[in-house]
Amino acid sequence: MAGVTDTLPPVLEIRDLHKSYGALEVLKGVSVTARKGDVVSLIGSSGSGKSTLLRCANLLEDSQQGDILFEGEPVKWKGKGPNRHPADRRQVIRMRTNLSMVFQQFNLWAHMSILQNVMEAPVTVLGEDREKVETRARALLDKVGIGDKCDVYPAQLSGGQQQRAAIARALAMQPRALLFDEPTSALDPELQQEVVRVIKALAAEDRTMIIVTHDMRLAADVSDHVVFLHQGLIEEEGPPDRLFGAPRSERLKQFLSATV
Ligand code: ADP
Ligand code: MG
To answer: Are strands 65-70 and 73-74 parallel, antiparallel or unpaired?
Structure first.
């Protein structure tokens, strides 16, 4: 939507990013921008570099070339190419905190209750007041529909409930954007829907999100912009209606016909 946010820097801007694992070049110059309130979906075949792009974006992985800007502020690097690493530890923490990830396999801590899982990082990483965090954590667990599960352990929950707990945990950091890596792929179809509902509710709240997904219906329903990655390059991108309704590249057409 046009308005004030057009004059603000994007929440996240990735410019011409290159990333290799040894001799394997996984990202070959990828640019993606998410403005405040944008939902950007990343689609593409397995191995096309989607997870790598998310992990580079919040500095879980190093990249060798290109820029990453968080709220207009470029990541500061030391070294070049294979020797390039983030230079400012506080900036790394700020970006990881503000670009909160939700993983395919939930990655909840098995030895902690659901409430403790949600409270852990705000208390230990951000040093926030425990009581304040607990109030927020309980409200978030209510919001994702598992307010009655505060005291149970992850193993006692269904996959869909675990993933909703993981979303509450990501939100507890009060991030500027959420990064989802195939949030529904590990779930049975009937459990996918409960997670999709939560993601749609977040999109309706104008949250900034980047979502890697194989669920084309989810991508079509929530995205402002869809990016199709192929072998480490953007093959095609655009608004969901256009991309799904009138794909131009043969590769995207093939990909879409194979996933429906
Ligand atoms: P996607 O998420 O689109 O399926 P990935 O980003 O996971 O793709 O992987 C892209 C490519 O990078 C694949 O060829 C994969 O095997 C390779 N790759 C991913 N992670 C590593 C790693 N830690 N070490 C070496 N190669 C990796
Ligand atoms: Mg992946």
So the answer is: antiparallel
For residue 74, the tally of other CB atoms under 10 A from its CB is 12
Cβ 115 vs Cβ 151: under 8 Å: yes
The two three-digit tokens of residue 156, written as one number = 């006692």
Q: How far apart are CA 171 and CA 106, in angstroms?
A: 14
Ligand nearest to the CA of 104: 2
pLDDT in tens, 122-134: 999 999 999 999 9
Ligand 1 centroid – CA 49 distance (Å): 6
Taking the centre of ligand 1 as the mean of its atom positions, its distance from the CA of residue 27, in whole angstroms, is 10
Atom 20 (ligand 1) nearest CA:
52
CA nearest neighbour of 140 among 164, 107, 162, 113: 164
End-to-end alpha-carbon separation of the chain, Å?
30
Q: What is the ipTM of this complex?
A: 0.98
Backbone angles phi, psi at 159, to 5 degrees: -55, -40
**With 60 as the cut, is the pLDDT of residue 3 above it?**
no
Indicate if the pLDDT at residue 156 is higher than 60.
Answer: yes
The pick from 24, 41, 101 for probing ligand 1's pocket by mutation, whose C-beta has the most ligand atoms within 8 angstroms, reads 24
* pLDDT, tens digit, 9 for 90 and up, residues 107-150: 999 999 999 999 999 999 999 999 999 999 999 999 999 999 99
